[in-house]
Amino acid sequence: MKVKRRLRKFIVAIFFATTILACKSNTEAENNKAVSTTQKPNIIYIMSDDHTSQAFGIYGSRLAGLNPTPALDEMAKEGIIFDNCFVTNSICTPSRATIISGQYSQANGVLDLEGTVETKNQYLPDEIKKLGYQTAVVGKWHLTHQPNFDYYNIFTQHHQQGSYYDPYLTESGMHYEPFNERANYEGKQHKGHSSDVITDITLDWLKNKRDKNKPFFLMHQFKAPHDDFEYAERYRDYLEDTFIPEPESLYKYGNHGSVATRGEHDALIHDIGSSVSKRNTIRHMGMRLWSKKYTKRNNPDFDPKQVEQLEGDAYTSKTYQEYLKRYLRCVKGVDDNIARLVKFLKEEGLYDNTIIVYTGDQGFMLGEHDYIDKRWMYDESMRMPFFVRYPETIKAGTRTDAIINNTDFAPTLIELAGGKAPDYMQGNSFKQILETGKEPEGWQQATYYRYWMHMAHAHANPAHFGIRTKQHKLIFYYGKYWVDTDNSDNEWNKKSWGNRFTWHTPVAWEFYDLTKDPKEMNNAYNDPQYKSIIADLKTQLKAKREALNEDDNDKFPHIQKVIDEHWND
After folding, report:
1. Is the pLDDT of residue 211 over 90?
2. 3-class SS string, 153-169
3. Dihedral sign, Cα of residue 171, residue 175, residue 178, residue 183
4. Range with the lowest mean pLDDT among 16-25, 95-104, 134-143?
5. Given a cut of 80, is residue 22 above it in pLDDT?
6. Given pLDDT bands bounded at 50, 70 and 90, which one contains residue 185?
7. Residue 92's closest CA among 294, 276, 364, 377?
8. How far apart are CA 250 and CA 321, in angstroms?
9. How confident is the model at residue 64 (pLDDT cuts 50, 70, 90)?
10. Angle of helix 194-204 versus helix 312-347 axis, rounded to 10
11. In the structure, how many helices (H) and strands (E) does the chain have?
């Protein structure tokens, strides 16, 4: 009997112990599940340099049939695609300064390529860190001062532009110097093509160097496809035997432009706007494209006699074909490295818990209107490719025509990380658009643009500002550098390469009805049927400038004088 009683007590004890352990285990599982479901998403912000919307499949341009971006297109289709994302100042450093600060150029002080952003003014990573994220930036930085990130590994050479091949990078923990302090400071050299190198570094950081107890915010920033379009050796035959579709406006200008961009009776077309053709006698694409310096790596067997005897449209077409092939080979390198990154994220179980953003720092002219480079307020230069993938809250296959610009990136990323943008940021969060595909009530219906770097780098783009809605665009060319060069007491960088800052170019307005003229072939500013529309756009433009503290009265009175004199032209 005693044995039986002891056995019963033992069984009961075992039962209670097992029950308690099971309850504890279930409770821990529920707690772990709660932690898992409330864990903040990782964020990867991917940005290429000068990757314009024409060079994608998803944007349906003349180049879409070439299938230039299969990996990027697949990612985009799994999320939301923005058709109306615009840059506020289409040039590398100002665009990046706007993205990192959430402010327009005049507010953050970076008007042109000579501007810098001090570490303490790099607001985006600072705000993200406050939310418990580990932050990192890899690749092109181009803002001079030390990055305000937990980890960085950035291009060092050529004003932080970096080299396409065997680039030097500076990693956090190494001695850091802004590029303008010691010309011979180079950092650590990495062998290979830059697009491969920075992807290697990113993958290594994700796998081996990050704190896996924290969510991460990573900015992965390619050099490609910035000029001079040095692609990886493995792409030499890509598109070699393919005819690249040409824009009609490469040869036929129509009523595009104004006296500000063309001069009276086209007197300035040889001076303003770098070209594909030989139109611009100061800087056209062939001057660099066909030179020995720029063919020695990508086309060492090139015979200059192939182009020396060509003139007119034949020369233009030959140059365009080579220009686009080199550009698209760089794009191919970006796309293939995106595929590597996606493969890694999937293998590591990170793909669906990571918000992935892709964009370019601005658009780029690929021969439209016989222009190269960016800087212009024309759509090919002003429009940024932009899409976001995050299956937790973003429905696949979503597309929107909501207007956003690069001041909106920082507020949105901060809100996606669980925070709220500080008041000093001028942009607006579009998180609600990401999650619903719809514009919230009162959402912005126009975007403001301003290019400050008047007649620079032999690309020779006159200074201008303007407003773009979904239907219309109004541009004002005021034609003066932001420093009053007529005042002998003022100083500016007279050694800046290829500049003609002192040339005051003609003043003019341009207006495009984008509903009828999406390729901007007809400047209809003087068409009386648009008088009321133009008047309304001027009212909106003036209100935008006041709201953004873009009034030039105090800092740039020489510009404000031009504006006042010609506002009602």
Report:
1. yes
2. EEECHHHHCCCCECCEE
3. negative
4. 16-25
5. no
6. low
7. 364
8. 12
9. very high
10. 10
11. 17, 16
- Say if residues 143 and 114 touch (Cβ distance below 8 Å): no
Omega within 30 of 0 (cis) for the link into 245: no
Distance (Å, whole) CA 476 – CA 496: 25
Report d(CA 253, CA 369) in Å as an integer: 6
Give me the helix-helix angle, 312-347 and 70-77, nearest 10°. 60
pLDDT at residue 182 in the model: 46
Is-contact 361 87, C-beta < 8 A?
Answer: yes
Predicted TM-score of the model (pTM): 0.92
The closest alpha carbon to 362, from 30, 96, 165, 11, belongs to: 96
Least confident of 280-289, 392-401, 461-470, 490-499: 490-499
Other Cβ atoms less than 10 A from the Cβ of 5: the count is 9
Residue 263: left (phi > 0), alpha (psi -120 to 50), or beta? Answer: left
CB within 8 Å of 274: residues ≥ 6 apart = 280, 282, 283, 284, 285, 371, 372, 373, 458, 459, 460
Alpha helices, DSSP H, located in 189-304: 194-204, 259-262, 285-289, 292-295
* Residue keyed to tokens 């400047």: 523
Average pLDDT over residues 45-64: 98
Residue 314 to residue 332: CA distance in whole angstroms: 27
At residue 8, does pLDDT exceed 80? no
**Nearest Cα to Cα of residue 96 among 62, 144, 55, 59:** 144
Q: pLDDT for 272-323, tens place per residue? A: 999 999 999 999 999 989 887 777 777 777 777 788 889 999 999 999 999 9
Q: Tell me the pairing of strands 446-451 and 464-469.
A: antiparallel
What is the C-alpha to C-alpha distance for residues 282 and 455, in angstroms, rounded to an integer? 12
Beta-carbon count within 10 A of 558 CB: 18
Q: What phi and psi, each to the nearest 5 degrees, are found at residue 411?
A: -55, -35
Distance CA(569)–CA(567), nearest Å, equals 6
493: number of Cβ within 10 Å = 12
Give the DSSP per-residue string, 55-92.
GSTTTT-TTGGG---HHHHHHHHTSEEEEEEE-SS-SH
pLDDT for 179 equals 58
User: Strand, helix or coil at 433?
Assistant: helix
What tokens appear for 283 in the block?
């800087």
